[in-house]
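Q: How do we represent a protein-ligand complex in a form that can be generated token by token?
A: Start from the inputs.
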Amino acid sequence: MKLFLLVLLALVKADNTVIGVPPSKQELYQPTVDSSGKKTWHCLSDPSIVLSYDQINDDYCDCPDGSDEPGTNACPYNPEQKFYCENSGHIPGFIENFKLNDGVCDYDICCDGSDEYLTLKCPNKCVEVHQQFVKYKITAEKDNERALAKRLKLLAKAQAEKQRVMNKLVETKAKLEQKQEELKQLQNEGTVVGNGIKQYVLGFIKSSEPSEDAEDENGRREEIERLESEIKSLQSDISIYEENLAFDFGKDDIFRAVIGTVITANLGEYQYSLDFLGLVSQDSTNIGRFSGFKNGHLMYTGGAQCWNGPRRSAEVELICGSENRLLSVGEPEKCKYLFRATSPLLCEELTDEYLMENFKVDYSLL
Ligand code: MAN
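Then emit the structure tokens for the protein with alpha-D-mannopyranose bound:
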């Protein structure tokens, strides 16, 4: 088997094309030729490790990053290092090296069967796979367009909501200024009274009606108190609006559109309810309140204490879909819940990578 591998790889390398390496990286695999005609090459991650050119794909791992074995499974698994399948007529794929020559046709990734270049168990099925892919792509794009249209509506709603808060802030600030001015004036009148001038004048005028003077003063005091409390409440409103505007509602503020939106689902033995920016619960148990985003996930913390464990917390991974819907929940660690939910909120244009990742070949049709 090994001899066959060496022969095969030597054939592949006749034009210095290295098996398992995409065309964009072939230039990294060009040999250095010295004056005696000897071909050498160095590990990509460590140029101080110089190898004879034949050591590439010789089924022995020489480089710490595995770069000398792009076409074999000789090196330890490295997610950065995958085998390139050309898939002519379809979309190129990259497959984990441990799946090479394992006798399994991984047509989802390598429709050309090139991952089984030694077992030769997998004839090229790229024509059939591509037909399936085109069908899948049309449906996926239609679904995505529907979801994107919904996202646009949510975006408009989110922006309107932001504008509403911004307007409120401007309005409230203007009102505050006006009330502060009114208060200042009233207090100034009070200063005159304090200086005794007005008191004298009032006393003189009011000598026939002494109670009216006291009434005026009481009224003025009440008015000051009323204004002061109004100012306090306006200042508190302003802080709320400012906090709201500084809050992270996600990219384009899109999550403003789901303030107060709650979705529920019966999953396993419990009914779960998710208020996007509020509480998540499991039946009547609080499993966390929204505390922000982490790696694109929504995080909820500070839920009910878990017996002999931490306070409950949750994480929600949103997948693009035209409806807000809870799909699944798991408890990877005790009282730490991981939800998957669909929503139009984070939908984007589909990329070939996304389509390739999510496309499943129907092997029964091959
Ligand atoms: C309840 C639920 C479970 C959790 C246990 C912990 O049964 O909240 O999800 O694992 O409590 O005791």
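The pocket of alpha-D-mannopyranose is lined by residues 282, 285, 306-307, 331, 334-335 (CB under 6 Å). The first helix runs from residue 2 to 12.
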